[in-house]
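Students often ask why we bother predicting the structure of a whole assembly rather than each chain alone. The short answer is interfaces. A chain on its own may look different once its partners are present, and contacts between molecules only exist in the joint model. In this exercise we take two input lines together and write out one structure for the complete complex. Read the inputs first and try to guess which parts will touch.
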Amino acid sequence: MTESNLVYLRPVTDDVDTGGFWAAAQQRTLVVQACTNCGAVLHLPRPMCRVCHSFDLEWREVAQHGTVYTSTIVEHQVHPNYPVPYTVLVIELDDAPQARLIGSIPGRMTPDAGTPAHVRWETMPDGTIVPNWALD
Amino acid sequence: MAAIEDAGLDPADIDGIVRCDHDLVQHNALAETLGVRNLTYWGSTGPGGVAPCAMVGQAVAAILSGLATTVLVFRSLNGRSGRRFGLAPTAASQSSVGGGMTYDEFFMPYGLLTAGQMFSLIAQRHVHEYGTTPEQFGAIALAFREMANRNPRAQMYDRTLTMEQYLESRIIASPLRLYDFCLETDGAAALVVTSSDRAKDLRQAPVSIRAVCQSSGPNVQPGMQFGVMTRPSITHLPSNECAEVLYRTAGMGPADIDVAQLYDCFSITALLQLEDYGFCKPGEGGPFAEAGELALGGALPSNTSGGHMSEGYIHGMNHVLEGVRQIRGTSTSQVDNAEVSLVTSAPPPGPSALILTKAV
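Now the answer. The structure tokens for the assembled complex follow.
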């Protein structure tokens, strides 16, 4: 069951601000945007550092581990290709808690806040690789 | 037209229009249809539910700056028969999501598709942090339903709700249930804003706008809504900063508020604002509601027309109208001697709010 694909809607992967995240994902590498001048982690990614206003930004590799910040079990289906029940996770990255990423797992779970989780790479039919999450 | 007639005005008196950015009706179409002679100001704000109080603020700014004298503020939507907010993109043309600073690519591929699911994530975090219970969320739904049961215009006027029915209702996205969600509504609401001098000889006793404000708070997240998930805390929304600005501008505090219309797209939204606007401490919104404080006779009678959850979803503009009724003394759940009336609009990504008083 954990091997099944949950992601149906394909993320836009060539956006000028966020494309670097998805380019790295294609190599099964997890990155967050960071400022090379002041070191701030910038998620959601943007053209300019919101702390020091530098344009010198980079994609910094981070560990593929995090913890659950919150979650919800979706019981009411709103999209034909997202069958319920499934659980949406909000994950805080171990290496950059300021950056929260979203994951989803099949079925019903209500993990405690702080439950450890790791990246589970999903390959979509068109070859797009998406970082999803699973509980440890 | 009803709002203009209620004020004892003629469409020719209207020289300003403010609309919500989500509204399908443009200012020029409305002006032409009503027979407005010459529009000297038009504006719009949003996104969506953030707009209503901010729209009134734009009207006030236009009047104070001399751009207009008499401004029509409106919201119209076919939330049931037209575009339904709770649906995800399903068209083939939308098999890709995100890009263009929407940031949906970080959220929607994982099945986080709707505002309801997002607020459920916020509600679950509130449960994690404070132990908020289903009965406490339910107390909010029941309080607003009781108000609607006295309001013949409310969609839920003739449908009562018990705690047993609430607890037995189906989960939409945990921990939120069917009755924690707002309604889908076809409807419209409008009001007329003018100067105190101009208002003196109009048909209705005027209601004063004591204070109106918008507030993004620091580090406002980009994107339409899901960026809220990246806030330092998702149980502390920018309504906190909005309250600070509003109370400072009004020279008032939470203790001065007699009655409130809180933006309630979901029960959790109203709950967070009880905390953010200072009616109780952070984390105590649940016990506050459970103690009956939102009912007539409680510490803060709220959403006295039924709100989004039981009157109808006019994207927060119905809350402004009900705030006015409380000062006029014409609500179907009238608070005795209501002199200070609070209205709020959607918390993320940066809310607006206003305080109404009797004209001085």
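Check your guess against this: Chain B touches chain A through 49 residues (CB under 8 Å).
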